[in-house]
């Protein structure tokens, strides 16, 4: 479904009518899912409204006609997030049960059913991805390219971990470990995925072909979740492949700088130096 959206968006087309009824699923193997029933009219049915992003709903007038200009690729992302939730929860909608309640919650940005379930360990990493797709503000939603990256990671590796003897520390063909893949994700999905791998792996400091450990990869991650990932790795005994040099200090994440063992590693290699962090505090 993500690949289909990515393709039509590359052709400057917005689907505008993504809902479970418009997802075609093949009976043959391998199973294929396809998008159908693009919205070609201005009139919006009541059944379709609850699968439309808040910015679309806000533009529907009393006659049920939507302003087409409000539809964007990110409004399709919102609708697809709701469909993902529907599949994961076998028929539930993240914004409520009845249509009237759903529409009110959509306009308020309140996916209360999603919020209730996202704390469950079983659903955490899956619904974290959905949460990033159904954010009320379009600019806060994940781009398709990031969604696809995460899903490819999940499809390729989570299944293997569950169904085979593959371990997270196993190196892939390109020399990266599963932990490295998790560390490079840039949304709220990253911490729970990393936590799942940490619970499985025995070798937290496995190095790739470039000699990098997972902690090295996280240190170069610029997302808001990098500090969380750093903490998870440090708590499990994660280490950098080598002690940081003075020239590396500016490039280390703040989360790494405030880690006690990181300070120790740094000070073992740097003597009689005054270093200021981003808030002006000095290390002596």
Brief sketch in words of this structure:
By secondary structure, this protein is mainly α.
Explain the overall architecture.
The protein is mainly alpha-helical. The protein contains 14 helices and four strands. It has helices spanning 2-10, 46-49, 54-57, 73-88, 99-108, 112-117, 124-133, 144-163, 178-184, 190-200, 214-219, 226-235, 254-257, 260-269; strands at residues 23-25, 33-35, 275-276, 282-283. It has a two-stranded antiparallel sheet. It has a two-stranded antiparallel sheet with strand order 3-4. The longest helix is centred in the middle third of the chain and has 20 residues, at 144-163.
Question: Which key terms come to mind for this protein?
Answer:
284 residues; mainly alpha; Transferase(Phosphotransferase), domain 1; Serine Threonine Protein Phosphatase 5, Tetratricopeptide repeat; 2 domains; two-stranded antiparallel sheet; 14 helices; 4 strands; 4% strand; elongated
